[in-house]
Each structure stands twice: as C-alpha cells, then as structure tokens.
Amino acid sequence: MMQTGTLVVLWALAGSALLLVVSANQEQYERFLLQHVDANPSGRDDKYCNDRMRYMLRRDHRENNREGPIICKTTNTFIHENTNDIRAVCAEEDIGGGLHKSRRSFQITTCKAHGNKSLQNCRYRATRSYRDIVIGCDEEGFPVHLDETRIRVRRGGGASGSS
C-alpha cells in the first residue's frame, strides 16, 4: 500500500501539471484575443490597421519575450464581435482538423501589409467584410486559432467556405 506522504506528493504533482496546462491554454486564448479580436474598433480603414497592427505586434513581442526587431505581419484579420459570441463558435460542429465554422457571419477587418517590413515603416491596407469565421479551439472550448485559409471572400463582399 502507498504511504500517505506519497499520495500527497502525487496529488501535488498532478495539481501542478494541471495548472501548467490551464496556464498554457489561457495564454493561447489571450494571444488569440490580442491578435484577432477587437469588439469596438475605432474606424475600419487603413489608419485603423496601421494603429492596431503596431499595437498588437509590440504587445505580442513584449509579452512573449521576443528578441530582435519587430517584423510586420503580412496579413492579419480582426473580428469585431464580443468574445462570448466568438467563443460560441467552438460549440459548432467540427468541420475537420479540430476547426469550427460559424453559423453566422461576423464583421471583420483584414489588414494586409505593403511596403517596408520594419514596424516603423510598415503600412497596412484594410479590407472590411462580413463573413463566416473558422476557428480552432482548445480542449476547454476557447478559441486559439483563426484559420483564414478555409474562407474565401466572394466578389461583392460575401463569403463562402472552401473546404
């Protein structure tokens, strides 16, 4: 039989491992929110993209202890909806690869870089649309990845899936 002390140590180790997993999942979710969610944007034009991308890249660089220069991200999409509605997409049917497609469209802004790749000189062009989103979710039902490759925008601003 196991000693009480051994059981206490095993429970402590299991609890520590669980905290590490929860912490990692929380960090992924918070990074998803930083990179892809802006519920109340101030404009959705090129200036919005320039300002929001600079803020996002600086904060991501700092919070993830990255070294070296901050490089512009080629493309990034922001979803303009509250986090509960975005998280609800994780409860939708799995469309493959652990991805979930929304049943309704969301307002989004896609920012595409053009020109220089250093943060100070990087410029973005904004494209506004209203479309379905495809997200990857963790085991707890929190979004951690926006999969832009599964959605293509039709001419005229609509969207359709490209499974």
TrEMBL record:
<dbReference type="InterPro" id="IPR023411">
    <property type="entry name" value="RNaseA_AS"/>
</dbReference>
<dbReference type="GO" id="GO:0004519">
    <property type="term" value="F:endonuclease activity"/>
</dbReference>
<keyword id="KW-0255">Endonuclease</keyword>
<dbReference type="GO" id="GO:0045087">
    <property type="term" value="P:innate immune response"/>
</dbReference>
<dbReference type="GO" id="GO:0005615">
    <property type="term" value="C:extracellular space"/>
</dbReference>
<comment type="similarity">
    <text>Belongs to the pancreatic ribonuclease family.</text>
</comment>
<dbReference type="GO" id="GO:0016787">
    <property type="term" value="F:hydrolase activity"/>
</dbReference>
<keyword id="KW-0732">Signal</keyword>
<dbReference type="Pfam" id="PF00074">
    <property type="entry name" value="RnaseA"/>
</dbReference>
<dbReference type="InterPro" id="IPR001427">
    <property type="entry name" value="RNaseA"/>
</dbReference>
<feature type="signal peptide">
    <location>
        <begin position="1"/>
        <end position="24"/>
    </location>
</feature>
<dbReference type="GO" id="GO:0061844">
    <property type="term" value="P:antimicrobial humoral immune response mediated by antimicrobial peptide"/>
</dbReference>
<dbReference type="GO" id="GO:0019731">
    <property type="term" value="P:antibacterial humoral response"/>
</dbReference>
<keyword id="KW-0539">Nucleus</keyword>
<keyword id="KW-0540">Nuclease</keyword>
<dbReference type="GO" id="GO:0004540">
    <property type="term" value="F:RNA nuclease activity"/>
</dbReference>
<dbReference type="InterPro" id="IPR036816">
    <property type="entry name" value="RNaseA-like_dom_sf"/>
</dbReference>
<dbReference type="GO" id="GO:0001525">
    <property type="term" value="P:angiogenesis"/>
</dbReference>
<dbReference type="GO" id="GO:0003676">
    <property type="term" value="F:nucleic acid binding"/>
</dbReference>
<dbReference type="GO" id="GO:0005730">
    <property type="term" value="C:nucleolus"/>
</dbReference>
<dbReference type="InterPro" id="IPR023412">
    <property type="entry name" value="RNaseA_domain"/>
</dbReference>
<feature type="domain" description="Ribonuclease A-domain">
    <location>
        <begin position="25"/>
        <end position="150"/>
    </location>
</feature>
<dbReference type="GO" id="GO:0050830">
    <property type="term" value="P:defense response to Gram-positive bacterium"/>
</dbReference>
<keyword id="KW-0964">Secreted</keyword>
<keyword id="KW-1015">Disulfide bond</keyword>
<keyword id="KW-0378">Hydrolase</keyword>
<protein>
    <submittedName>
        <fullName>Angiogenin-2-like</fullName>
    </submittedName>
</protein>
